[in-house]
Design a protein that fits this description.
Structural class of chain A: alpha+beta
CATH class of chain A: Alpha Beta
Helix content of chain A: 25-40%
Order of helices and strands of chain A: EHHEEEEEEH
Oligomer: homodimer
Number of strands of chain A: 7
CATH architecture of chain A: 2-Layer Sandwich
Largest sheet of chain A: 7 strands, antiparallel
Number of helices of chain A: 3
Chain lengths: 154, 154
C-alpha cells in the first residue's frame, strides 16, 4: 500500500512592480500575456494549455519539467476582482497521483505609480511527491518572469 | 468602491470516531449519508444540493441561515483516496459576492477499532463578510453531526 502523507504549508511572496494594478491584472487576464510569462516561461515541453479566466473557469495544462514525465495542472478560478484580487484552486498531478492541492490568493494594491503584489499560497503536498521549498522557489521564478513581462509591456 | 480585504487563516480540528475509516469515508462518499449529517444538519431552508463525489466533481448548494439571504457554496473535489483522504476547494458566496475561498483536507487514520479524523482548513475570508472563528465553530458543529451519523450507522 502506498504511504500516505500530507505536508501543510503556507507561504507569502511580496513584490512591488513598476506597472499599474490594471497592467498587472491584465498579465493574468489576457491569454497571450499569460502564455508568455506563465505557460512558456521555462523551456519545458508544453503539451497543451487551456485558458479560461473567469470565476468558475477551469484551466488545465500539461508540461514536462524533465522532458519525460508529464505533470498536469488544473486550476479553478474561485474569485476575481478586476485590478484587485485573483483567487484560484490548483492541483498538480502525474497521472492519477496528485502531488499537491493549493489555494492561491493574489492581492494587488496601488503603490505610487506601481503595484504592491502579494501572493499567498496555502498548499497540501501529498505523499512525499512535492515539497514547500520547491513550490516557493518555482513561484519566485514565475514572478520574476511576470516582472520581465511587465517591463516589455510598459 | 467596495473596501477589499483578505483574512488568511488556517485551523485544524481533530476527532477520534468510534467507527472504521471505511465508515467515516462512506459518510462523505454516500449521497444519502452526506445529505443527513452535512446538508440537512441544521434547520436551514435548503434550496438545492447537488452531490458529485469524485475527483474533479463539483457540488453546489444553496441554503439560508437566516431564512432570507441565500448563501451558495460550491465545492470541487481535488483528491480522494478511499478510506484515507479527501481534499476539496470551496467557495461561499451571496450572489456574486464571495465570502470565502478555502482548501479543506481530511485525513483518516485507523485508531484501534476507530478512526483518527484530522480536518485542516486553509481559508481566505473576503471583504469582511465572514470570519475564521465563525467558520471553525461551524465546522465543529458539522463534525458533531458526523459523529451522530456514525452512531446511527454502527
Amino acid at each position: 500500500m502506498t504511504e500516505r502523507s500530507v505536508i501543510h504549508s503556507t507561504f507569502v511572496i511580496e513584490r512591488t512592480y513598476d506597472a499599474s494594478p490594471a497592467l498587472v491584472f491584465a498579465a493574468f487576464a489576457d491569454p497571450a500575456a499569460h502564455d508568455r510569462w506563465f505557460v512558456k516561461n521555462q523551456d519545458w515541453p508544453i503539451a497543451e494549455y487551456r485558458h479560461d479566466f473567469r470565476v468558475g473557469g477551469q484551466e488545465a495544462g500539461r508540461f514536462s519539467p524533465d522532458g519525460t514525465t508529464m505533470v498536469h495542472n488544473e486550476t479553478l478560478y474561485q474569485d476575481i476582482v478586476p485590478d484587485r484580487r485573483i483567487i484560484f484552486a490548483t492541483t498538480m498531478a502525474i497521472g492519477d497521483a496528485r502531488l499537491s492541492a493549493s489555494l492561491a490568493v493574489i492581492e494587488l494594491e496601488p503603490a505610487g505609480a506601481g503595484t504592491r503584489f502579494v501572493y499567498t499560497e496555502h498548499a497540501a503536498f501529498l505523499d512525499g511527491r512535492d515539497n514547500p521549498a520547491g513550490r516557493e522557489a518555482g513561484c519566485r521564478a514565475l514572478f520574476d518572469s511576470l516582472e520581465a513581462e511587465l517591463r516589455r509591456g510598459t
